[in-house]
Amino acid sequence: MVNFRRLTDQAKKIVDKRGGTDSLKEDADELKDIAKGKGSLKDKAKAAGEAIKDPGAPGAQTERPKPPQQ
């Protein structure tokens, strides 16, 4: 049997680790642009793999600022 609560919690952790939902949307847009772009399927797959390694938009800040310690 599938534990949907556990699956949902894991998905939330992964999204938060990659920068939140805004970063996820930027990743999806970037992948969409790669898929629609020119080049062979092999080139697109390589570009998509590289794009996924860097969460969010290209060149965007990948880590959230840390709160000041007291």
Describe this structure in words.
By secondary structure, this protein is an all-alpha fold. The chain has a domain at 17-53. It contains three helices and no strands. Helix 2 runs antiparallel to helix 3. The longest helix is centred in the middle third of the chain and has 16 residues, at 21-36. It is elongated. The chain starts with a helix and ends in a 17-residue tail after the last helix.
Helical residues, percent = 55-70%
Q: Summarize the main sheet.
A: none
Compute the number of helices. Answer: 3
Radius of gyration: 15 Å
Q: What is the approximate shape?
A: elongated
Number-wise, the strands total 0
Strand content: under 5%
Structural class: mainly alpha
Q: What string gives the helices and strands in order?
A: HHH
Distance between the termini: 46 Å
Low-confidence sequence ranges: 60-67
Mean pLDDT: 83
Task: Lay out the secondary structure.
Blueprint: H1 4-17, H2 21-36, H3 41-53
Q: Summarize this, please?
A:
This protein is an all-alpha fold and 70 residues long. It has three helices and no strands.
Structural key phrases:
mainly alpha
